[in-house]
Amino acid sequence: MKSFAKILKYAASYKKYGFINIFCNILSIIFELLSLMLFIPLLNLLFNKETEAITTEPTFAFTKDFFADYFNFTMQQYIVDNDKASMLLFVCVVVGIFTLLKNVFRYTALYYISVLRTGVVRDLRQKIHKKTLELPLSYYSEQKKGDIMARMTSDVQEVEWSILNSLELMFREPIAVTLYVTTLIIMNAELTIFAMILLPISGLIIGQLGKSLRKSSKQVQEMVGSILSSIEETLGGLRIIKAFNAENHIRNKFDSINEAHTKLTLKMGRKRDAAAPISEFMGIIVMLVLVYYGGNLVLETSPEQKDAFSGSEFMAYIILFARLLTPVKAFSTAYAIVLKGAASADRLEEVLQAKNDITDIANPKIVTDFSKAITYKNVEFGYDRSTVLDNVNVTIQKGKTIALVGESGGGKSTFADLLPRFYDIQKGEILIDGINIKEIGLKNLRGLMGIVTQESILFNDSILNNIALGSENFNKEQVIEAAKIANAHNFIMEMENGYETNIGDRGGKLSGGQRQRISIARAVLKNPPILILDEATSALDTESEKLVQDALFKLMQNRTSIVIAHRLSTIQHADEILVIQKGQIVERGNHTELLEQAGVYKKLSDLQTFAN
Fold first, then answer.
1. What whole-number distance in Å separates Cα of residue 486 and Cα of residue 517?
2. C-alpha neighbours within 13 Å on the C-beta side of residue 244
3. 373-611: same fold as 2-352?
4. Which residues contact 467 (CB under 8 A, 6 or more apart)?
5. Residue 86 binned pLDDT confidence (cut-offs 50, 70, 90)
6. According to the 3-state scheme, what is the secondary structure of 304-316?
7. Which pLDDT band holds residue 475 (cuts at 50, 70, 90)?
8. What mean pLDDT is predicted for residues 265-272?
9. Does position 104 have pLDDT exceeding 90, yes or no?
């Protein structure tokens, strides 16, 4: 039940609704008990059983005899004033009123538990989403996107269906069982003790079934993650799948995952469906044994005995015990379902408890501007056990442009990713104006930078909102000015709704050059002192590249820029070019100096010249 407790902690802010629910459930159960207890005098009336005459009102005492004597006294007085038929009508009316009150409080309990249940689900989704934004990029390099999506969708939904929908049962039914058992003990302690010996047997069987359900449920949820990953890969790679006639391969791969999921779901469903019939059968067996044992108690006692267990009391006892089986069975079933949902709760906890090493220190320094230099000092970094950057030392003066070139996988993008702390270095330090970037608040640090990547990251929203992403206190005129600088204003105005045009998923309604210019406009609007350009023109055609390059040139004016480029023609005017190979800076200088060195850079330049 640890997973249940973990989910329950999210209900702490809704505890007042939980208390109201418990209070209303107690009243509902009490009125239900009272209506059922009235069956004893009702049966006595129907079968003409004479009760012992009580002529004076009994003295109060919290005992079974007092309540029985008081009710008999009230009945006898009523019969004296009226007749038995009127008394029968009175009892029926009272039972009706008690039943109405029971259902009113039952609805009130459900009304308030709904607020708690839906609120917890909302908060859980928000916490999961918030955590996904906080976790470092390194976390997602080790996880499947589809599995993360499954946890945020199907696992949260499973928690809602399995745990939170059973939440009310988990609290209500133990209260109901306690009150019913107390009443049954008062009616006949011997018979109740015998019944309590039998009941745990069915509970043990249901518990074992619940454990099996939890194991199967975890396997099913993992398969859902695999299905979503397969779908995400299919949708993202449709162009290549069709180009290489790989439809059958992809279809077979998906079908095998889907078939495995179907078999697991079927297996889990059969176990879940078995819970109710098994618990009902065990309840009936317990009831039959109880009827036999209790019936012998009635037959063996004489009606004249003071503590005689009458037939009407036994019938009322059986009615109450039958009602007791309902909450017992409901609790057993709810427990099995909760164990099933516990697997999803565990998967959610894995995300919520995932370690985030990239965080702010206790009292981070505030940097409002960049005025001197960026310094990489003895920087070392690697993914897992592989070294990506080895003892890198670089100083970038304010207003200068530094370019990174070299073979793929050499460490260029990692060099740039370390500055905004997408990853944290293992050794050395990175300084901005002499301050270690780990001492600067993350939001403050990243606020100093604008990033334009090779793949334009756009969202299914309007052009206006994409350009203004993350910017505060902006107006439309500023957005338009940024778009003009990025050479984007003209094509935006040609679109149907101008700046309010929705650009579709990942900006799919725009060309590559248009998407890139929107990304540049976003960086222009942010107006950062430091720019990181990660192969921003490598995926464009010649015409688009010219427009984007012109926009980048405007963007880079009076800013400190780190430019990653494969096309050397785009960085010839950089103040310094670093040639990175296998995590180390093997050459450095401007374009002319590096050509004169006749080293790695000269080879790269010659290869690109020959290719052109």
1. 6
2. 7
3. no
4. 479, 482, 483, 499, 518, 521, 522, 525
5. confident
6. CCCCCCCHHHHHH
7. confident
8. 77
9. yes
Task: Name the strand (E) or helix (H) holding 392.
Answer: strand 386-397
Distances (CA, A) of 120 to 2, 137, 331: 17, 28, 21
- Look at residue 434 and tell me whether its pLDDT is greater than 80: yes
Q: Is the pLDDT of residue 464 over 80?
A: yes
> Which pLDDT belongs to residue 260?
85
Closest residue by Cα to residue 10 from 174, 95, 125, 90: 125
Write the CA distances from 404 to 185, 408, 561, integer angstroms: 83, 11, 11
> Does residue 203 register a pLDDT over 70?
no
CATH topology of domain 2-352: ABC transporter transmembrane region fold (1.20.1560)
Question: What does the domain layout of the chain look like in residue ranges?
Answer: 2-352, 373-611
In this model, does residue 460 exceed pLDDT 60? yes
The arithmetic mean of pLDDT across residues 278-295, rounded, is: 75
* Amino acid at the residue 145: K
Average pLDDT value for residue range 280-306: 71
Whether residue 377 is predicted with pLDDT greater than 90 in this model: the reply is: yes
Q: How far is CA 499 from the centre of its chain?
A: 34
β pairing state of 584-589 and 576-581: antiparallel
Contact between 146 and 226 under an 8 Å Cβ cutoff? The reply is: yes
Instruction: State the CB neighbour count (10 A cutoff) for residue 61.
Output: 11
Considering only CA atoms, which of 98, 123, 117, 101 is closest in space to residue 39?
A: 98
The CATH classification of domain 373-611, taken from the options 3.40.50.280, 3.40.640.10, 3.40.50.300, 3.30.450.20: 3.40.50.300
Q: What percent of the chain has pLDDT over 70?
A: 79
Residues counted in the chain = 612
List of residues 6+ apart from 466 with CB closer than 8 A: 458, 459, 503, 507, 518, 522
Residue 400 dihedral angles phi and psi, to the nearest 5°: -90, 155
